[in-house]
Amino acid sequence: MADPTVKRNIVVVGGAAGIGREIARQFARSGDRVAVADINKQAIEELTADSEGSIFGYYVDVSSWESVCHWADDLIRRFPAIDSFIYSAGITNRRPFLEIDWPAWQKTMAVNLHGLFYCLKAVLPLMRQQQGASVVIIGSGSAITGTGGGVHYAASKGGAFGLLRALVAELGRKGIHCNVVAPRVIQSEMLDRLYPDPDDKQKLIDQIPIGRLGQPADIAALVRFLSQQEAQYIHGQIILADGGRTFQAD
Amino acid sequence: MQLELFPLANKVALVTNGFGPVGEEICRRLAGAGANVWLHGQVEEGCELSDTMAAEWTALGVHLSPVRGTAADRQTIAQLVATILEQCGKIDLLVNNCQAGQRRSFHQLTPADWLTTMQLNLDRPFLFCQQVLPAMLGAGGGTIVHVSSTAALTGQISPDFAASQSAVQSLTKGLWHEFHGKGIQVIGLAPEAKEAGAEQSGQLAKAIGEMVLLLGTGYGVYLNGEILTVHGGIPNG
Ligand SMILES: NC(=O)c1ccc[n+]([C@@H]2O[C@H](COP(=O)([O-])OP(=O)(O)OC[C@H]3O[C@@H](n4cnc5c(N)ncnc54)[C@H](O)[C@@H]3O)[C@@H](O)[C@H]2O)c1
């Protein structure tokens, strides 16, 4: 077992709201040092203010390589060796395929897919190269089903799968294990934007065998498990966390 | 079952990113089956299509549409689709070849490389689908085939390539989900990831050409939404 008295350095990109925020809070509560990077300055401030100094906030726009480099230069000062890296930044703007205009397509790709690459490119060199270091990417079940946030969202989230597999050999040899967690419907700001009508939410719940929406805490618990050394043998996996929705029989 | 000699007579096909062994095999098969084929593709800067090659394609009845530069040129794509619709009145089959890539490590890969691969393998198929789908929907149907690769699952060739392959497979699923009730078939082919020139890559290209022909003839309707792995019985791993 890992020594619980040793503080680990955790980085959560997209950690100022929703699933990422819960991940950051859970790590901080268990005594780890957490860096949260996000584009939402106000949300970062609110989160760090009530974290009693265990969460450090950073502004970054993941869709800009310059912004990511700038952030990484800053990060290295307080987080010279990172134990776990989590990517939870994401956007959705669901619309029919023929109404996805070029800026909407580009923006979705830039945040959900290119931003993931930029952050990995900048942060992997700062990671501790020892057994038990880890990467967890928050993907989406929509990459598997094609449903959810629209075709552009599905495509952008799908990119993480091939990228993950391409990193397995290289990162494994450095002691870093990496996985994708793919949720489907988790109660968050993002979900509220996608399904503002409570009736639509109820329809979703009716499709989930476990009988409720997922909570950020469900995903955070899984991410924490995957981030520790005990989970090292789970490497290169895409783990669907959906309350059974994807495989329910009609 | 009686197979027709020219099962694609009167059909119009558009093959994208097609200057390469796989794209050429696809075009040869489709043209050989009687289709009116339009071939769009990347030609390296400073490198011309040879006259003999152009003559060969013209003899087969394939219209060539070479482009330069890697940026997803929306206007060129819109113009090409408009020209085809003007001349032929419809597009029955769109084949997006999404296999641009080269071997490199994560360490070697730059953000510019990453974006180039995504432009070729992901942005372009998106733009072609958006341009072609309204015509297909208007005509009551059509088939879209995305040729990706097993690298989506195995991570072979390079991180950018593998990521673009899994992304395009999710694009395939998303399009299928949205359009399957409207007469549109969207199917993925995932040949084993091989570098051009590798042993058996010629056979693999032929196999892809044959699969596209099959799907183009409409024999594949029950495969709608599937991503079919094509590896010649020698899987990886
Ligand atoms: N909520 C769900 O049902 C659900 C389902 C499947 C997958 N996901 C995925 O989970 C992840 C988290 O989603 P969430 O539900 O917590 O959403 P959220 O909107 O609550 O949180 C996303 C966070 O990413 C940040 N972000 C957006 N653009 C950014 C940028 N350019 N640079 C830096 N940060 C940026 C936002 O500010 C926000 O804090 C996303 O990747 C999403 O695709 C969510």
From TrEMBL, chain A:
SUPFAM superfamilies: NAD(P)-binding Rossmann-fold domains
CDD domains: SDR_c
EC number: 1.1.1.100
UniProt KW Oxidoreductase keyword: yes
Superkingdom in the source lineage: Bacteria
Molecular functions per Gene Ontology: 3-oxoacyl-[acyl-carrier-protein] reductase (NADPH) activity
Annotated keywords: Oxidoreductase
Homology family: Belongs to the short-chain dehydrogenases/reductases (SDR) family.
Protein name, entry field: 3-oxoacyl-[acyl-carrier protein] reductase
Organism: Brevibacillus fulvus
UniProtKB/TrEMBL annotation, chain B:
Protein keywords: Oxidoreductase
A Pfam family: adh_short
Record InterPro entries: NAD(P)-bd_dom_sf (IPR036291), SDR (IPR050259), SDR_fam (IPR002347)
Superkingdom of source: Bacteria
GO molecular-function term, one example from the UniProt record: 3-oxoacyl-[acyl-carrier-protein] reductase (NADPH) activity
Oxidoreductase keyword on record: yes
Enzyme Commission (EC) number: 1.1.1.100
Family: Belongs to the short-chain dehydrogenases/reductases (SDR) family.
Protein name: 3-oxoacyl-[acyl-carrier protein] reductase
Organism annotation: Brevibacillus fulvus
